[in-house]
Design goal:
By secondary structure, this protein is of the alpha+beta class. It has two domains: 53 residues, no CATH class; 68 residues, Beta-lactamase Inhibitory Protein, Chain:B, domain 1. The chain contains seven helices and three strands, in the order αααααααβββ. Strands 1-2-3 form a three-stranded antiparallel beta sheet, with helices on one face. α1 packs antiparallel against α2. The radius of gyration is 27 Å and the shape is elongated.
């Protein structure tokens, strides 16, 4: 045993096994641990900065990117339209499905948005018709919207 040497003990949250777990499951915590660890190599600190920058860029793109803008425009158009226009949007929206705007709406919420259906078959679905277009909205046992089937083409009157 040498005199004057001490083993440097690491705090539990600076141990490699904990850093690996936080990197996998809670990356922002890992970034803080790495940046605040005075013994951590500079290359790892730079890597943590790159991971943070990429995370911020992805988040900003998801909230302000073109797809988010299209979703917001579709939401505005949906809110300003009448039931016939909403039915057309449900069946003819291109890359951004208006069906997503209904989400997990209940039968009552769908009727409030689209108006009274033409038919209500025994299976619990709602059938809407507009010109040559027939749109059938299906619901699960709990009454939540879970599918849509269309037939025909939307016609202008």
């Amino acid at each position: 045993m040498e005199i004057g040497t001490q083993t440097k003990s690491r705090k539990w949250f600076r141990r490699p096994w904990f850093k690996i777990l936080t990197f996998i499951f809670v990356t922002p915590v890992w970034i803080l641990i790495v940046w605040l660890d005075p013994d951590e190599r500079n290359g790892i600190k730079v890597f943590a900065g790159v991971v943070l920058a990429l995370g911020i860029a992805v988040t900003v793109f998801q909230h302000f990117g073109p797809e988010a803008q299209a979703r917001k425009a579709l939401q505005r158009e949906w809110e300003e339209s009448d039931s016939a226009s909403r039915l057309e949007m449900l069946t003819h929206s291109a890359s951004h499905s208006a069906f997503d705007l209904l989400g997990d709406a209940t039968r009552e919420e769908v009727i409030a948005m689209l108006g009274s259906p033409e038919e209500t078959p025994d299976n619990g679905s709602l059938v809407y018709r507009h010109g040559a277009l027939t749109c059938t909205l299906q619901f699960d046992d709990a009454g939540k919207l879970n599918g849509m089937r269309t037939q025909g083409q939307m016609t202008t009157e």
